[in-house]
TrEMBL record:
Name recorded for this polypeptide: Transcriptional regulator
Species of provenance: Mycobacterium stomatepiae
Keywords: Kinase, Transcription, Transcription regulation, Transferase
A GO MF term: kinase activity
Coiled coil: none
InterPro entries named among the record's database cross-references: ANTAR, CheY-like_superfamily, GAF, GAF-like_dom_sf, GAF_ANTAR, WH-like_DNA-bd_sf
Length: 235
């Protein structure tokens, strides 16, 4: 690996460390990473992340320009294109010249008629949790990406996947805290209504959840709503 590539990799590692240390692994952090990719990958002008869930709903997560967002909207409409192919088929997709690449005809037609994009490089993101995504790089010139571009693109894909995983863990932690707070409120309602202690109240709530086949947090929310509907609505 050249000195320049080594420097870029070191900068990416430092950025990931900052995101983890400062708890800033958010959409803004992802945007910073793809901006860096658009700047440093040879031939690249724009970048974006495509999310394609298990139900094959396609959305754009973050982009450096409207072109990646527009092209993701087309992929959502037609269920075809290099970015969703990279995500769904577990591949690296390289479009050297969109004007002659016939793999996704409806996507190709829209891109040629409405954008100047001619070269695309897409990587599956291994982000876990059933999430399917792709990191995409775009250029207006055909044959814009060379072997160095593809190698560095893979490096960026690894680091973006790591940042995404950190962001998911952060969201899961917040969700867990919120669920704990809701269940605690529901326990308080049960304790007051039935004159039970905390352990007995939680056991009753758990039994009700099992008997009704309702998620514990959902049941707790319904109980709080029934007791204090205005408080829940406007808090």
């Amino acid at each position: 690996m050249s000195d320049e590539k080594t420097t870029i990799v070191a900068q990416l590692a430092e950025l990931i460390a900052i995101l983890e240390r400062d708890g800033t692994a958010t959409e803004a952090g992802l945007h910073e990473l793809i901006e860096s990719g658009a700047t440093h990958i040879p031939g690249c002008q724009y970048a974006g992340i495509t999310l394609a869930d298990a139900g094959k709903v396609v959305t754009n997560v973050v982009a450096t320009h409207r072109y990646p967002t527009d092209l993701d909207a087309v992929q959502a409409r037609y269920r075809e294109g290099p970015c969703v192919a990279a995500a769904w088929e577990h591949h690296i997709m390289h479009v050297a010249d969109l004007a002659v690449d016939k793999r996704w005809p409806r996507y190709q037609q829209y891109a040629l008629e409405h954008t100047p994009i001619r070269s695309i490089l897409s990587y599956e993101l291994f982000v876990g949790g059933g999430t399917i995504a792709a990191l995409n790089f775009y250029a207006e010139q055909p044959h814009a990406f060379n072997e160095d571009s593809m190698e560095l693109g893979g490096v960026f894909a690894t680091h973006v996947a790591l940042a995404w995983s950190m962001m998911r863990r952060k969201d899961q932690f917040r969700s867990a805290l919120a669920s704990r707070d809701i269940i605690g409120q529901a326990k308080g309602v049960i304790m007051e209504r039935f004159n039970l202690d905390a352990v007995e109240a939680f056991e009753l709530l758990t039994r009700l959840s099992q008997q009704s086949n309702t998620n514990l947090t959902d049941l707790a929310e319904k109980l709080i709503d029934s007791e204090h509907p205005l408080k829940r609505r406007y808090r």
